[in-house]
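User: Before I run my own analysis I want an independent prediction to cross-check against. Here's the chain; please return only the structure tokens and, at the end, one sentence I can use as a sanity check.
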Amino acid sequence: MPQGKCLTKERKKIAIDKLKRIEGRIKGLVKMLEDDRYCIDVMMQISSTHEALRVVGKGVIQNYLEICATEGINSKNKEKQQEIYGELMDVIYKYVK
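Assistant: Structure tokens:
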């Protein structure tokens, strides 16, 4: 499968910033548990954190489709095209839920 970096600088910065905020949320969740906070409050924060991760994943997948996959599909190299189609199938089945 093709390897390498294809995340744009802007999207990379956005993803890193969001992940750092998510890291803060995780630390907040640990504190909530340590402080014996109400289960529903903890679950709401877990749900919110999960959705924030999905947003980061959506941005990475969008970038992958717009840049990485498009480059492979538009390639004149039939082997590269087949490789990217296989990779797309893997992405769809593994990561897009």
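Sanity check: The chain has one domain: 9-95.
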